[in-house]
């Protein structure tokens, strides 16, 4: 089961750590900018606070909701997936959906929407899923001691993920891939 509320709380906690400001201080800062439009506030948070697009968007959405201002819809996994797989990447949505359906059978985890992918977490991130190109979905995995190869590509140490797999069709969401994802899920505790 995916817990969006918990994912948003985790994202807000990370925003506060990144900026060194409490949520009340961040809201006060946004109010003091004198800006009224969502996009303007989001861009100010990105440039002045050093936040990424997804973090700035979530912060501004919740700020505007708290003030009763008209706001963009809350950042949800479904909305993020719709944005990520739009335009020339729309044909990859069924591949993404098949991957997520396989993962949903594992048990509880959080989905943290980012600008170009979804971060999947338990106690720590175990996978990232998003389009790598117009024709391939990339699954980044954090697991130890998997046997890398042509399909399961080992990544350089210190990166976001230890392995990545690129697929272009729903047929490639097979037992081997699901097994690798399950190993990462189990390792994330």
Features:
14% strand; 7 helices; 189 residues; alpha+beta; six-stranded antiparallel beta sheet
Shape: elongated
- Cα(first) to Cα(last) distance is 15 Å
- Show unreliable segments: 70-74
Count of DSSP E strands?
A: 6
Q: Which structural class matches the secondary elements? A: alpha+beta
Please indicate the percent range of residues in DSSP E strands (runs of 2 or more).
Answer: 5-15%
Fold topology:
Elements: H1 4-19, H2 23-32, H3 38-49, H4 53-67, H5 77-84, H6 93-104, E1 110-113, E2 118-121, E3 125-131, E4 137-141, E5 153-154, E6 163-167, H7 175-187
Care to describe what's here?
Helices cover 46% and strands 14% of the residues. It has a 6-stranded antiparallel β-sheet. The longest helix has 16 residues. It is an alpha+beta fold and 189 residues long. Helix 3 crosses helix 4.
């Amino acid at each position: 089961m995916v817990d969006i509320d918990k994912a948003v709380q985790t994202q807000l906690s990370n925003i506060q750590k990144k900026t060194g400001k409490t949520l009340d201080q961040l809201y006060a800062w946004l109010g003091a900018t004198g800006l009224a439009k969502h996009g303007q506030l989001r861009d100010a948070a990105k440039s002045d606070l050093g936040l990424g697009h997804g973090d700035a968007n979530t912060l501004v959405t919740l700020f505007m909701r708290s003030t009763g201002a008209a706001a963009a819809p809350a950042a949800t996994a479904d909305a993020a997936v719709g944005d990520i797989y739009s335009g020339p990447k729309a044909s990859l949505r069924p591949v993404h959906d098949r991957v997520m359906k396989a993962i949903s059978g594992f048990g509880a985890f959080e989905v943290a929407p980012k600008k170009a992918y979804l971060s999947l977490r338990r106690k720590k991130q175990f996978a990232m899923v998003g389009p790598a190109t117009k024709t391939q979905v990339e699954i980044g995995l954090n697991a130890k001691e998997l046997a890398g190869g042509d399909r399961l590509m080992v990544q350089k140490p210190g990166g976001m993920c230890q392995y990545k797999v690129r697929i272009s069709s729903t047929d490639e969401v097979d037992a081997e891939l699901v097994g690798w994802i399950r190993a990462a899920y189990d390792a994330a505790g």
